[in-house]
Amino acid sequence: MGLSSHFFSYENHNVRLYKGSTNAAPLPAASITSFTSRKHKPSFNKMATLTVSRPLFGGFSFENCKRNALLEGEANKVGCSLPAARKTGTTICGVVFKDGIVLGADTRATEGMIVADKNCSKIHYISPNIYCCGAGTAADTEMTTQIISSNLELHALSTGRLPRVATANRMLKQMLFRYQGYIGAALVLGGVDCNGPHLYSIYPHGSTDKLPYVTMGSGSLAAMAVFEDRYKPDMEEEDAKRLVRDAIAAGIFNDLGSGSNIDLCVITKGKVDYIRPHDEANKKGVRTGDYKYKRGTTGVLTKAVTPLALEVVEETVQTMDTS
Amino acid sequence: MAAAAMVPIFGQNVSDKYDLVPDWTSREVSTGTTIMAVEYDGGVVIGADSRTTTGAYIANRVTDKLTPIHDRIFCCRSGSAADTQAIADVVTYQLGFHSIELDEPPLVETAANLFKASCYRYREELTAGILVAGWDRRKGGTGTVYCVPIGGMLVRQPVSVGGSGSSYIYGFMDSNYKPGLSKDQCLELTAAALSLAMERDGSSGGVVRLASISEEGVERRVLLGNQLPKFSTH
């Protein structure tokens, strides 16, 4: 609480010059060392914590996480388990090629051992020139990318410039660090801006790496194997697309948490190609037999027809979104 | 500086038995690490390995753990990747602000104190072991190394090592460091020490990144696997 929120509350930054001190302006006043947030690390030195308790002050409260863990334990003792959050088991990856970025993702979303969505979209829009693949908890990746996309649009309107990938990276890492890993979003962020193509991998705890090729998700090891074998700097677009397609395919066929189709997103200067699906790697099979029986297979003994007098009051048609 | 921290237990109990997603994907990313900083007359030499791990998987095999905080001040990061990146960003901001107010390049001691302030105040929540090293105008222009280990202590040392791999090279450092080494001797010492640590520590590896900071500027170098000094013959 003290840590994650106060690290980045620059708005509260009070500039005070201390006479004779070499320190710069301190971190915002009234930051709290909350004892309750002493989560996982065994505290060897009791001497370090102050005994003065101060009123809680903004920031995220992790109290409910302890309660949830207790409830989970009790449920397990009785024999039932709490519903699992829908995760995108996932293989996602990205690669920098000569003119830009290619991002790739599979399309399977799982709830425990069941496939919840056979064709979900894991490549999220951040800004016209920046896209982000998400692995981990589906809700977390969805909401996080939407929040940052919205903030980035406001920021771009304020600066009057096309947003930079480094800006999106910093916003995402600062938000994820603030939530100390409880937001389970592992992201591959890629885009092209005024400084060229950039690719970042962002982990749930808020650490980021800037690399020429990255993979994330449960199938990341399979995809990384393909990249480590065949990646070359400054590839052509077709080679890059083929490489990403093969990497995702490796994840789909070798990892249980990934499956269905392969989506690609090719970002170059001034153009974005959102190819969904790029490759239907897993088509639903066609049945060889048919269970429909011909009319007259079962003999009719008696027949009685009763007409029902019904009045049509209102008729509405609502089309289902099957995209 | 013992091995990296494990991830908090609270969030991780969700149906472990039925997990399609393997365990290492939910581990926190840590820079297992070996880092080192040496003072010489006129500057400092810093070095680090390049491995970042999540559990048993190497998330990044070419990490740059030598992070610039200011023009002539660097920090070497060990511990949790997220924590050290966040702290380094905060201190970079604070030091840049302070430097503009002063209208002067900042002192290494100032940067070290800023690190200490953050690391000590949030010592219960953070896992960060940092070496702050750089060149400033004090005492005619010298290099200085400060060590800010886990817990938030601050101590100035002529030579310092950190990270999980440091345990293996304390003896090497104690026997081979002498005051009054030249820049090239320091570079050789650092490269040798890091290679030895990387050989023995599973959480350290990849390439050796070196940097030397002096009044003239910062010189960066990378030693790839086949360029590392060799010690064992078998």
TrEMBL record, chain A:
<dbReference type="GO" id="GO:0005634">
    <property type="term" value="C:nucleus"/>
</dbReference>
<feature type="domain" description="Proteasome beta subunit C-terminal">
    <location>
        <begin position="281"/>
        <end position="317"/>
    </location>
</feature>
<keyword id="KW-0888">Threonine protease</keyword>
<feature type="active site" description="Nucleophile">
    <location>
        <position position="90"/>
    </location>
</feature>
<dbReference type="InterPro" id="IPR016050">
    <property type="entry name" value="Proteasome_bsu_CS"/>
</dbReference>
<dbReference type="GO" id="GO:0005839">
    <property type="term" value="C:proteasome core complex"/>
</dbReference>
<keyword id="KW-0378">Hydrolase</keyword>
<dbReference type="InterPro" id="IPR029055">
    <property type="entry name" value="Ntn_hydrolases_N"/>
</dbReference>
<keyword id="KW-0645">Protease</keyword>
<protein>
    <recommendedName>
        <fullName>proteasome endopeptidase complex</fullName>
        <ecNumber>3.4.25.1</ecNumber>
    </recommendedName>
</protein>
<dbReference type="GO" id="GO:0051603">
    <property type="term" value="P:proteolysis involved in protein catabolic process"/>
</dbReference>
<dbReference type="InterPro" id="IPR000243">
    <property type="entry name" value="Pept_T1A_subB"/>
</dbReference>
<keyword id="KW-0647">Proteasome</keyword>
<keyword id="KW-0963">Cytoplasm</keyword>
<dbReference type="Pfam" id="PF00227">
    <property type="entry name" value="Proteasome"/>
</dbReference>
<dbReference type="Pfam" id="PF12465">
    <property type="entry name" value="Pr_beta_C"/>
</dbReference>
<dbReference type="InterPro" id="IPR001353">
    <property type="entry name" value="Proteasome_sua/b"/>
</dbReference>
<comment type="function">
    <text>The proteasome is a multicatalytic proteinase complex which is characterized by its ability to cleave peptides with Arg, Phe, Tyr, Leu, and Glu adjacent to the leaving group at neutral or slightly basic pH. The proteasome has an ATP-dependent proteolytic activity. This subunit is involved in antigen processing to generate class I binding peptides.</text>
</comment>
<dbReference type="GO" id="GO:0005737">
    <property type="term" value="C:cytoplasm"/>
</dbReference>
<dbReference type="InterPro" id="IPR023333">
    <property type="entry name" value="Proteasome_suB-type"/>
</dbReference>
<keyword id="KW-0539">Nucleus</keyword>
<dbReference type="GO" id="GO:0004298">
    <property type="term" value="F:threonine-type endopeptidase activity"/>
</dbReference>
Automatic annotation (TrEMBL), chain B:
<dbReference type="InterPro" id="IPR001353">
    <property type="entry name" value="Proteasome_sua/b"/>
</dbReference>
<keyword id="KW-0647">Proteasome</keyword>
<comment type="similarity">
    <text>Belongs to the peptidase T1B family.</text>
</comment>
<keyword id="KW-0645">Protease</keyword>
<dbReference type="InterPro" id="IPR023333">
    <property type="entry name" value="Proteasome_suB-type"/>
</dbReference>
<dbReference type="GO" id="GO:0005839">
    <property type="term" value="C:proteasome core complex"/>
</dbReference>
<feature type="active site" description="Nucleophile">
    <location>
        <position position="33"/>
    </location>
</feature>
<keyword id="KW-0378">Hydrolase</keyword>
<keyword id="KW-0865">Zymogen</keyword>
<dbReference type="InterPro" id="IPR029055">
    <property type="entry name" value="Ntn_hydrolases_N"/>
</dbReference>
<dbReference type="InterPro" id="IPR000243">
    <property type="entry name" value="Pept_T1A_subB"/>
</dbReference>
<dbReference type="GO" id="GO:0002376">
    <property type="term" value="P:immune system process"/>
</dbReference>
<dbReference type="GO" id="GO:0005634">
    <property type="term" value="C:nucleus"/>
</dbReference>
<comment type="subunit">
    <text>The 26S proteasome consists of a 20S proteasome core and two 19S regulatory subunits. The 20S proteasome core is composed of 28 subunits that are arranged in four stacked rings, resulting in a barrel-shaped structure. The two end rings are each formed by seven alpha subunits, and the two central rings are each formed by seven beta subunits. The catalytic chamber with the active sites is on the inside of the barrel. Component of the immunoproteasome, where it displaces the equivalent housekeeping subunit PSMB6.</text>
</comment>
<comment type="function">
    <text>The proteasome is a multicatalytic proteinase complex which is characterized by its ability to cleave peptides with Arg, Phe, Tyr, Leu, and Glu adjacent to the leaving group at neutral or slightly basic pH. The proteasome has an ATP-dependent proteolytic activity. This subunit is involved in antigen processing to generate class I binding peptides.</text>
</comment>
<dbReference type="GO" id="GO:0004298">
    <property type="term" value="F:threonine-type endopeptidase activity"/>
</dbReference>
<dbReference type="InterPro" id="IPR016050">
    <property type="entry name" value="Proteasome_bsu_CS"/>
</dbReference>
<keyword id="KW-0888">Threonine protease</keyword>
<protein>
    <recommendedName>
        <fullName>Proteasome subunit beta</fullName>
    </recommendedName>
</protein>
<dbReference type="GO" id="GO:0005737">
    <property type="term" value="C:cytoplasm"/>
</dbReference>
<keyword id="KW-0963">Cytoplasm</keyword>
<dbReference type="Pfam" id="PF00227">
    <property type="entry name" value="Proteasome"/>
</dbReference>
